[in-house]
Each structure stands twice: as structure tokens, then as C-alpha cells.
Amino acid sequence: MSAAVINQLQHLITSEQVSRVDIEAVSQLVDMSTISVSLAPYTSALAAMALTMQAFRDGHACLDLASVVAHDPDSVRDSLLSLPQLVATQETADALPRPPFVCDGDLLYLSRVYDEERAVAQQLLADNASRITIVLGGPGTGKTRYVAEYLRQLPDNEVPAIALCAPTGKASQHLK
User: Fold this and answer.
1) Given this model, what pLDDT does residue 130 score?
2) pLDDT exceeds 90 at position 165
3) Which domains, from first to last, does the chain contain?
4) Widest CA span of the chain, in angstroms?
5) How far, in Å, CA of 26 to CA of 54, rounded?
6) Which of 171, 162, 104, 160 minimizes the C-alpha distance to 137?
7) 58-65 contacts: CB < 8 A, separation 24 or more?
């Protein structure tokens, strides 16, 4: 990746959104790819890749483009998808050579993490296809109330195996 493109991403380091390590990792991935076009028009895509690296180091499975690019996540996604040597789609994620990133809707993953997430989901579906329930909804929509009511309706002698997860510590405490 050219020094000029790296300089365009410098603001991410200055604003502490990513580290120099993230930019360098993306730069190395670009250098290892077969890209032969100028990357100057793709700085938003490269920034999203660096932010994905940072998100992974922070313990997140992916980067939600809509949460970091409030003004126009579609243009960033389109820019990402214009670099098929670096970014696969859900449909092309298994292609070889394997791109280092996968864009699934507004979510940008490292390919390895995407594969791991898919494997877990497939295993859950295979093992528990008829016994799995996922409760989704925004704040205040009654998810905790639903779970509590469901548990109250179970017979006293029936103790099901239940795995609960919540996006925040506060929500997790409510479920307990």
C-alpha cells in the first residue's frame, strides 16, 4: 500500500480509533493480494478494514459499518465490495484464494472469524434445530419479561438446559 494512502489513514491513528498496528496489518494484506489498481479512491474501505482489525483486537466479532459510518454506510460497503481480492461476500466467502475480509450486509468480518461464526451457527442448528429459541428486540420491548414468563410456565419438575446471553452486563444481570 502506498505511503500516500497510509497518510490518508493517519487521522484514524491520531484520533485513536485504530493503532498503527491495524493500519500496518491492512497494508500487509493489501501488499499480499493481487490488487493492481490505485487504492487512493478506496480509503474509506481501507479505513473500515483497519477499524475491523481494531474491533477484533477489542473482542468484537465484526465491525458494524452502520454504527461507524452514520452518513453513508452503503457507499463504504460498495467500496469494500469493489475490492474482491480483499473482501468476499456471504456468497463468495468460500472462494479461493480466500480474501482476508467478508462483508455480510453491513457487517465486516475478518474471514477467519466469519467462518468461526458460521460454524457455531451451523452446529447450533444441527444440534438443536427443534429446541432453539432466539429472542430479539430493542430496549424495553419485553425480552426479559418473555423469558421470565416462559420459565414460570414450565412444570416444576422440568429443568431445561438454558443458555442465555445478553449484549451488556446490565442486560445479563436482568436475565439472571
Assistant:
1) 62
2) no
3) 3-119 (1.10.10.1020), 133-175 (no CATH)
4) 68
5) 11
6) 171
7) 61/109, 61/113, 61/117, 62/104, 62/107, 62/108, 62/109, 62/113, 62/114, 62/117, 63/107, 63/108, 63/109, 64/106, 64/107, 65/106, 65/107, 65/108
Residue 130 — φ and ψ, nearest 5°? -100, 0
Q: What is the pLDDT of residues 44-66, one digit of tens each?
A: 899 999 999 999 988 888 999 98
Sole residue written with cell 469494500: 80
As beta bridge partners, residue 103 has 89, 108
Task: Give the type of residue at 42.
Answer: Y
Which residue, among 90, 84, 82, has the nearest Cα to 109 in the 3D structure?
Answer: 90
Q: Give the H or E element holding residue 62.
A: strand 62-64
List strands edge to edge, sheet with 62-64.
62-64, 107-110, 101-104, 87-89
Compute φ and ψ for 3, nearest 5 degrees.
-60, -35
Rounded CA-CA distance 80/118 in Å is 21
Task: Give the chain's length.
Answer: 176
Closest CA to 104 of 139, 72, 133, 80: 80
How distant, in Å, are the alpha carbons of 8, 61, 67, 94, 154 from that of 27? 12, 21, 24, 23, 55
